[in-house]
Every structure is written in C-alpha cells, then in structure tokens.
Here is the input.
Amino acid sequence: MGRVRSSKSFFLMLAFLMVVVAGLAGCSENSSGESGGDGKWAGQTIKVQMIGDFAMEDSTDPITGEKTKGVHVLKEEFEKQHPGAKVEFILMPWEGYTEKTQAMLTSGEADVYQMPGVADFAPQGVLEPLAPYIEKDEDFNLDIFIENQVEGWKALGPDSDELKIYGLPFLGDARFIAYDKKLFDQWGVDYLSDHPTMDEVAEKAKKMTGKNPETGEQNYGIWFRGDWSSAFTLIDTAEGQNGRWGTGFAWDEIKFEFNSKEMVNGLNWLLDMQDYAPKGLVSNQGSENWMTKDNNIAIMLNQGPGDTVKPAYAQGLEDRIGIAQEFKNDEGRGGLFAGSPVAIAKDSKHKDLAWEWLKFATSDFAQKYVFEEMGLVPSVNSALEWDSVKEQDLMLPVFDAMKTPWTPRYPWGSAQPRFILTSEIESALTGKRDAQAALDKAQKESTEWLENR
Amino acid sequence: MAKDSLDINVGPGAKSHANRDVQSIKQKKRKSQLTWYIFLIPSFLGILLFMAYPIFESLRLSFYQSNGTIENFTGLDNFKTVLTSGPFWNSVWNTFFIGIFQIIITIPLGFIFASLINSTPKGQNFFKVIYFLPNVTSIVAAAMIFAFVLHPEMGIVNYLLDAAGLPTPSWLSEPSTAKWGVILLAVWHWIGFVIIICLANLQAISPEMYEAAKIDGASGLQQWLFITIPNMAGTFAFLLITGWIGAMQRFNEVYVLGGPNGSPARSIQTMGAFIYERGFTGFEFGIASAATYIMFVIILIFTFLNLKISNMKL
Here is the structure.
C-alpha cells in the first residue's frame, strides 16, 4: 500500500514538474533569439512592435476578400538585407494600444515601436532621439517623406524645450471630407470643390436633405461622428475660420482657446448641421448605409483613408466616392495630423540594428507592403509613382490631405482636455447647454486640469 | 496464534515498532500534504502576482502623480482631486442610478417569471434555457447588439414603440434615455441568473406547507404571498448583494456603448469607466488608483448596509 502511495505521489510530482517545465519553456525567450548566423549583424536580434491588423502568416483580408501576405515577408527581406540579424514581431490590435505600449516600454519588451503617441512617450525619456543617426547615415535622407510628415511627428524630449525627431513616418494618415457623387447627381447639386468652405458644405448639405427626387427615399445632407472624434471635427471648423485650439506643446506652455469666437462659431455650425443629419450622431449611429450601394448620406465630415479608400474599392464604389479637403486656414493648414511613426526604445540593446529597421520600414519595399498588402497609406513621396497607387485615384487627394494638416499634432489629443472638450460638444449636441456655455465649461475645466496636473 | 500476536504487540519491541508505524503514517501524511501544497503553488503565485501585488501597488500609486515611468509623491492630492471632481461624482451617480434600477426591476421580475415557470407543468426546461441564454452571452457582444436594438431609426425597440403609437426616443443619443438603454440591457442580461436562483429556492420550499395552506383554504395568491415570498428572503438577500457589487463594478457594457467617457455627455460613465478614462487613456495612474480606492470604500459601505438591511449572515 505504501509503495502504491509513494509511486502515486511520485507520478503526481512528475506530472507537476512536467507542467512547470512546459510552462517555463513557454514563457522563456525564443531559444533562437540570440543565436543568429554569420554576417555583419550576427548574434543580434531586434523585437519590433507593430499595431493594427498585421498578421505573421498569410491570411484573407476581411474587407477585400483577397489573400494578404503576413509580416513574415518583411522579416525575410530584412534578414536577407542584414546578414546574421534576426527580427521578432510583437503584433497588437489598435484596441488599447497606448496602455499596452506604455507597459511594454516600462518592461523593455521591444527595440522598435510603432508609435502614434510619440508626443506622450518622448517626454518620458523612453525613446532614442534620432538626429544623431540621421546625421551620420549618408544613405538616408529625410526628403523621401511626404511633406509635413517628419515635422508632424516631432516631439519634446525629457529635458528639451525644442521639438526633435523621435520617430520616422511609417504609416501615413489624414482626415478629409468624403461625399457620394451619386447622391449629388440625383439632387442636381455640384460636387464639393477641392477645398470647400463651411458655407459651401452647409448649403449643399441643406439642399440634399429630404426625399431624394429620383428614388423617393429619405436622404441626409451630412454626417459626422458626434462622440469620439468630435473634438477634432470642431477644431477643424475653427481652423477653417483662421482660429486654433490654442498654443504651446509642452504642458507648462499650453494655453487653450476652446471658447474662442471661432470655436463657438464652429460648434454653432455643427449644431446647425445636426438638422441635416440622421438621428444618432452622438452615439455614432445613423451612417450604417455609408459605403454601401444603399447609401443615404451626401457628405461625411472628418473621414480617414482606412474608412474610405479600401472599402470603396472593395465595394466597387470607387467612382461614386469623392474626396475634398478639410477646412483649412488662409495659410492652407488645417485638420488632424495622424498616422504612425516608428521609434527606437531608449533601452534597446541593438540600437544600430533598430535604426536599420527604421530605414527598412520607410523603404519602398516595406512601404509597398503596407499599401499593397494591408491597404494602409504610405508615408513616402515615391508612392506617387507606384502603379498600385496610380490605379487608385482616391489616393491622390489623400496624399494632398497629408501635406497640409495642423502640425505639430494636437499635444492634448490623448489627454484629459480631449475628453472634457468631447463631453461638452456632446452636451451642446444633445441640447444640455448652448455652444458658448459648453465651450466656456470646457475651457475652464481644461485649464484647471492643466494647472493641477 | 491470536494470543501470540497479542503478546508480540504488547511487548516493548512492539511499542517502538508501533511508534515507528505512527511516525511513518505522520510522515506519509506530511509528504502527501506537501505534494498537494506544491500543486497549489501556481494558484498562490497567481493570487500574489495578479491580485495581492496590484492591490498594494495601486495603493502606493494613489499617493503619486504617475504616468507609469515618471513618478512624483503628492500625498493625498489625488484623493482630493477625485473627491472634488464633478465628473467623478457624476460617474458615482450614474453607477448608482443604473445599478438601483437594474436591481429593483430585475429581482421582482425574475422572481415573478421564476414563479410562473415553477407553476408550469410542461416546458420548464425550455423556459429555463430561454431565459438563461442572455446570461451566458458575453456582455460585450450583447452591448454591441443592443446598440442596434436601440438604434433611433432602425432599432426594433423603436419599431415596436412606433407600432404601438408611442413616442420613439433617441436612446443612446440622449443623456436622459441613454441610462435607460443601459438599464434595459442590464436587466435583459441578468434576469436569467435571477430566475435560475429563484427557481432553485422555489423548488426547495417544502410542499407540505402548501398542502397545509390548501387545507386551511388559502388561495393561490395567498400561498404565494404568505408562504413563497417569506421563504425566498435569503435568495433575495443573496441577489441583492451580488447584484449590487456587480452593478458598482459596471464597466464593459458602458464602455462598448459610450466609450471611456460614457457618451453622450458622460451620461453613462460609471466609476469603472472613470477609472479607465483617467488611467488608461490619460496616463493618470495616480488619479485612477485613488478613484479605485474610493470606489472600494463606496462598495464596502454599501455592501455592509445591504447586509444589515437584508439581515444576511456571512
């Protein structure tokens, strides 16, 4: 009996040890991590974090239904170009990317980061300034990037009051006004001009609200998202009147102008536009038919290329969709600067190799991959010459939009003032407060937050 | 033979032999216990790393201004900021409003449904499954569907209201109706659980009590009022306390429906969403940690009150 029990406990112990060993093996670093092969970069491995719908293996694109190559393509090419080097990817979705990036930076998880929040992270001293790499690398030239992109991603370091380069533009992005040419035709309204004014948009939106003269169906002149991105929609209206959100980039220099005359006019304009929009703006509803053949909305404010270009071609609506620029000021600037740069972590052990990755990520090979396989927007000038870009007419106004947004990007874009302003815009859109009162409150709360932070 | 063995057993040598046996049994028991403790180590490690450590780390953070990498000690400033913050008290109000109406609607309604199911001779299992299905549905998925159910123009709720000649609210696009949209979702999601728990208790009530009442001439309603309901007191207390704690921690569905700041106009931002907004979208971990501890105290106080009110003994 004793033997039976002892052999039973032995097996239990053995089973436990196997579980622990398996667990530890699963948690351990990739055994091939530092082995490398022969060559200049032998023994060096970099970990690259990427955000979005990237996948390691080939897959089927859910929008186009076409086969998409995984990022193994980038890995293979980079390792071929850099003998001995190894690349490991850490892929993550957009959902919660800021907190995940923060956690990864804190624990030194990766060498290279796709970093839309570079303005938040650079002041923490966790990113490598790139000027020294750019200066000493004769093979590299910042002129390869679309105008305004490098400038837009500049950020403040921990001990500096001057904007510096902490990331190279990797993915381009922009905001623009999209419209449905078919509805314009049915209503007999001229298409939007390339640079429409608020008056032009309002006039045309008003004309196209009601029963469609051809189909008899209810049409709406305009739609904009009244919740999550409404702060940026409003600020663009202010920029269109030569106004601005405020001034400064470092927190101790920022001064908000949320209740300026232009902002109040802009919010009143959005309140007027609500009359020509379907119900549900504030809960991101009412635009369900957009980008379908049954679309019932003529003009869409504050749209991005990801929501527009790829779906338009996937749905066969490329001839029906038009793109006009957001409201710009007299200097031709306005609208949200967006996209993703790539940056090197301060505690990366292989910074030279990480720099090589940054150059690779902004090379034509990688940029073509992100456009042709992923449908994302390239950040380099050479893209205008690619056949794959030329085949998509809708990309041309997107590149134009990338050249003229407001830069540097709104530094409070992921901080409390954005949520304060968003909530007050919602208060106005839902009739809780008038525009002036809502923006006065937003100004007061944001300024108090700034003083107490 | 038996005597011999008895002799052997009672001799001095036998005593030490017996001691050895006792020791050996103790050793084996200890060894066996040790084996099981080794198996418990992963769980204990998990509790220490993912529960105990974050709880204390959060307490530490609540005294700092922290964005995860840069920290400055600020004493009780974060608590002061949270306690004087309008949006925080608005989130407390929203949490209580949604929670209270969820509880006062779901528990009585669930009990009524459970009583009806219990009195149905046929199809009990069918009804149990039908009502319990929402509870096993992911609340995130359910919230996404409810955004369509409550769509101001295409939603089925407004379609039915319109068909009945009633006004059709904008639901999630209006601060006043958005909360009721969340309550509707919460009731739909939780009622299956309430029904199952009530049914379990209903079936445990002694049939003799009903037979005695029948003999005394009690009507069905009287039996329900004077036998069933008093016997359900413990179940109601259990549902009140678990429902209350769940309601205080509400986050998932309001995040899906209204984002971290509880659109529209913070009308559905709960305490959990407030913590998420300040901590994970604004990198104000100190403020978020202080708000977490304040929320903990609020839940503690109200759970204590609930225990007192419901006379439930733990």
Observations:
- The first strand of chain A starts at residue 45 and ends at 51.
- Residues 1-5, 24-36 of chain A have pLDDT under 50 and may be disordered.
- The longest helix of chain A spans residues 2-27.
